[in-house]
Each structure stands twice: as structure tokens, then as C-alpha cells.
Amino acid sequence: MNALVASLWSEGLKAIRSKMLPGTIAIFAFVGAMMGFMMFAAQHPEISGRSATMSAKVSAIGKGDWPSFFGFLVQTVLALGAMGFGIVTSWIFGREYADRTVKDLLALPVPRFAIVCAKFTVATIWNIILSAILFISGFLAAKAFGIPGWSDALVAPFAVSFAKSALLTMALVTPVALASAAGRGYLLPIGYVILALIVTQLIGVGMPSIAAYFPWAFPAVVSGLAGNAIPPPNAASVILYCLTITAGFFGTLAWWRYADHT
After folding, report:
1. Residue 262's closest CA among 189, 184, 190, 188?
2. What is the spatial distance between Cα 46 and Cα 19, in angstroms, rounded to a whole number?
3. Is the Cβ–Cβ distance between 88 and 150 less than 8 Å?
4. Cβ distance 127 to 19 under 8 Å?
5. What DSSP state is assigned to residue 232?
6. Which has fewest Cβ within 10 Å: 19, 36, 62, 157?
7. Angle at 24 between CA 19 and CA 29, to 5 degrees
8. Which helix (H) or strand (E) holds 60?
9. What is the pTM assigned to this prediction?
């Protein structure tokens, strides 16, 4: 237990003293604020002017009211979260290789299991903070811009849907950690995250019947925002999702424990 606490303290200090933490917080806060502005622009089409790109994005939002905003925010945490959570995890696990400190870290009298668990714990806390920042900044921006259609009854089901989508998405970072270890840096895990996003979109559009069985599409399917063409999740899709997370975690642990780090 003392080894795990020491590892948590060390990994927490690395995160707090890095430029990544404030940088990712600023990005998620900015995106949340822009979402509120996009809702406002949907209510005032003249803001788009002659910009075809802006008009297309605004028209895709819908009515620009609170129900549309809530759905837009859940979609954002599914897409931006997958990318942001993956980048955070790749940094936490890959920086040891990029900074060439992995040998010094593994030479410490600390079980490697404690090191891996500490890194996953810090990644989870960090990603939860980013999700909260996205939620709060988006909500405050929407309030500030006076988005119509507010109802207290909308908040609770939306908050549950947002939290569920965020947690299901951030749980999929365990294979990213494995890619960081196997690739000994940032390049492979970031490439993996981008590829997973692309394949998820392709499956959702081209093969919706199997989307529920693709772990990276599972959060969107559970959220109900994937569309009626995609079947609801079942026992098999839940098992595949859980197996992916478990394989990523224990694969990362095994790599740190048994791989040649020389």
C-alpha cells in the first residue's frame, strides 16, 4: 500500500507540474464555450454570414435549444473525449520513454504493478476533471448566451447520460496505455487513437449492424445518440467491451513487468 501511495504521489506531481494539465483544461474549456456560442449562432443565422462552413455546422445542430445543446454536448464528450482522454493517457505512459526516465523509474524499489496502477489512477482523475470542465464551461456558456427551451426536468437525465458517456469513453484508454508502452513513446498511441476514431465512424455509417459489437462505438450506442439504425447493446457487446478494457490493462501491466526495457 505504501508503494502505491508513493507512486500516486509521484505521478500526481508529474501531472500538476506539467504543461499538459493546464493545456488540456484550456482546450476543453474553450470547446465547451464554443458549443454555447454555436447554440447562439443557431438561433441567429445572420451571425454565420456568408461562411458556408459555419452555416453547415450551425444547421447540423438543430433548433439551438437546450435539448439540442444537451445532445450536442454528449456527442462532443464521445468524440473529443476519445481523442483527449487518449492523448492524456499516452502522455502519462509514454513520457517515461520520451524523457528517457523509464530505466530510472523501473530501478526504484517499487513494484511495477503499483507504478501502472498509479498511472491509470492519475489518468482517470485527469480525464474526469476534463469531462467536468467541458460540462461546466458548456453549461455556463449556454446560460450566458440565453439558449431557449430550459427545463429543470432536462438536467438530471442529461447529466446521467453525459457522465455515462464520459466514463465509458475514458475506460477505453487501457489499450492506449499498452500502445504507449509497446511503442515506447507518443507516436503509436496517438496513431491508434486516430485510427480508432476513423474506424468507429466508418462502422457507424457503413456497417451499423455491427457497431454495438465494436468496443470503441459502444459508448455512443449506449448513449442512444448513435441512431436507430444501430441495434441496442446486448450481452455479447458488453462482454467484448469489458474484454477490451481488461486486455488493455493487464497487457500494459505485463509489458511493464516482463518486457525488455534496455
Report:
1. 184
2. 38
3. no
4. no
5. P
6. 19
7. 130
8. helix 52-61
9. 0.87
